[in-house]
Amino acid sequence: MVDCPLSEDPGASMMSVSGLAVVSVFIGASCYGFLLRALLKANKQRAQTRLHKQSVYYALPAGLDLIALQLAVGAGLVAALQRIVEFFPTQPLGREFAVVCGQVRSGFSLETALKNFRERVPGPQTALFVGALLQAQQQGGAIVELLTQQADSFRNEIAEHIEKKAHELPIKLLMPLVALIFPATLLPVIGVLSAKLIWGV
């Protein structure tokens, strides 16, 4: 009696390929997710620093206006900075000036405290801002008009910056599409191809 070879069940073969594809997709997705989380974690601190700096920069015109107003009515520069802290207690600029006022109360000179602020929030805008405040410390009310002009100049720069960012936005929106959506779409295909190459099914 001759034994007949068992024919391969197409359904079982298909289930095997599907199972391997699912495993491959799961492994690929896990690796991709791990790498993505690592990149996000690495960039988080840098993004927070950039956001803090930008928030301070955007608030500088209002800060200069308030300082000019306080100087115009005879207040001192430290008192003017304290008023900004009271007006913006939860905003980055208010918190930064709270540090400045705290350092002055601790015995630092106002010049040193302002230079420390400039080092914490580096940039040409804060350098100009601190320079204007140091000049205001020396000249008092005579600097009010200059501070107001500086505030207007900052506003124009911010408006141009926002307009530039708006033009760049469509290009930046393509990055999440390329980085997230396309790989997720290709994962099933890659999984099936990987299963065929590795296991020959």
TrEMBL record:
The chain crosses the membrane at residues 12-35, 56-81, 173-199. Signal peptide: none annotated. It comes from the Bacteria. It is a multi-pass membrane protein. It is found in: Cell membrane. InterPro entries: T2SS_GspF_dom (IPR018076), T2SS_GspF_sf (IPR042094). This is Type II secretion system F family protein. One of its GO terms (cellular component) is plasma membrane. Keywords: Cell membrane, Membrane, Transmembrane, Transmembrane helix. Residues 64-187 form the Type II secretion system protein GspF domain.
